[in-house]
Amino acid sequence: MGTPLVLLDVDGVLNPFERPHRGFRRFRCAPNGVMFKLWLYSAHGEWLLDLVDSTGSELAWASYWCDRANQWIGPQVGLPELPYVPIPQFPGVEEGNTLGAWKARHVATWVEGRPFVWFEDEPDVTECIAAEDGVGDHLLVRIDPMVGLTEEHIRLAADWLKAL
To answer: What domain of life does the UniProt record list for this protein's source (predicted)?
Structure first.
């Protein structure tokens, strides 16, 4: 079965699309020379580290940020350098190719049948990951991209991981 994974998206999960509640701070970064304005909450790192410590799981990025998340996102929320799912840039909508399907395909390959929780905001990713061959036990925790990750999401993941 392997050690369970906790997969973490950035935009819409750690970086909500609307101005979030107090406690979030505004950051600017320029990966690849493109300026981004991010809302990040330092407590997210603590919540996620507590989650993996209490469940014996491993944390990894599952975001288009790939390794850039280790430079621009992780330090702002208190996360160490993490492994990441190599998700190439989305090629665009083609027949049967949605953003959720594209990400799910790369996640399914990378997890290699290990159980995982995935914090994700893409609306079609639940069906997409379930349709991938070889995907083991998993829980997709759907995040409202206007709100971002909450303590309730962490509790759902913890309960599921502890029940494995």
So the answer is: Bacteria
